[in-house]
């Protein structure tokens, strides 16, 4: 270790060329250095290794036994170092074998990952995608430790420690089964509040959401009779009952079993975003994935 501290990359490069050429003059030409400079390097190397390394011979210089021992390990070490500091290679999706890990709710799965999946399989068939449960409190730690590559989350609640890219803006609509009698004709606030509602409570068990906050500000309240943790079951409930729900519009727009109408009061929407850590920000494969997801929504 002491010898390693006394070495620098220029000394090692000089030694590598000297062990190849066995000649100070030719080594100086290859290194684009003067012959005296190479001789100074050789003197320092002899001191560090405690060995003459190269001895005068009938046709140039001949390596010592110690120099012969160094030749291959030194060449391998320099090649590895060159690979390590070389510019990142362009990402080739067709040849890639990455396993990407994305944290998302079922809403993010439906609106971002599902539309992107076909193109992902076509363009990068050797890759894999793992979808993990979205845990907002753990996002920063998971991203910084590489547990996840990306998270799909609302911009409003995004941790400031992560990079963010907005994907789209979402608004709420009132949804129910096709032909629901409560969704026909003029929908007043009174009729809206009298309907039986279901809401999604991501943490489970909640009966108060952004719609209830907007109603409370208007001095109103609605009749929430069911709380579920996921959108998937909510859509099934709506299709098979007379319950209604305030849903993000993207979950309803292509549905054949649900219809949507504008609610009789303004309910704030939100912005959906991708989040990632600084450790992945410049990685070519990661950048490709981000671009692909953004282009798919």
Q: What is the topological layout?
A:
Blueprint: H1 2-6, H2 9-21, H3 24-31, H4 35-49, E1 54-57, E2 60-63, H5 65-85, E3 99-104, H6 106-123, E4 128-133, H7 139-144, E5 150-154, E6 163-170, E7 172-177, H8 189-194, E8 196-200, H9 210-217, E9 223-228, H10 231-240, E10 245-248, E11 258-261, E12 270-276, H11 284-296
Parallel strand pairs: 3-4, 3-5, 8-9
Antiparallel strand pairs: 1-2, 5-12, 6-12, 7-10, 7-11
Strand order of the largest sheet: 4-3-5-12-6
Please write the CATH class name of the largest domain: Alpha Beta
Classify the fold: give the CATH topology of the largest domain: D-Maltodextrin-Binding Protein, domain 2
Termini separation comes to: 54 Å
Estimate the mean pLDDT confidence: 93
Shape: rod-shaped
**The CATH architecture of the largest domain:** 3-Layer(aba) Sandwich
Pick out the low-confidence regions: none
Total number of helical segments? 11
Assembly annotation? single chain
Helix and strand succession?
Answer: HHHHEEHEHEHEEEHEHEHEEEH
| CATH-defined superfamily of the largest domain | Periplasmic binding protein-like II
Task: Please identify the structural class as seen in this structure.
Answer: alpha/beta
Biggest sheet descriptor: 5 strands, mixed
Radius of gyration: 32 Å
Helical fraction: 40-55%
Domain HTH lysR-type: 7-64
Organism: Pseudomonas ekonensis
Family: Belongs to the LysR transcriptional regulatory family.
Keywords: DNA-binding, Transcription, Transcription regulation
Task: Name a few traits of the molecule.
D-Maltodextrin-Binding Protein, domain 2; alpha/beta; 297 residues; LysR family transcriptional regulator; DNA-binding; five-stranded mixed beta sheet; three-stranded antiparallel beta sheet; Arc Repressor Mutant, subunit A; 22% strand; single chain
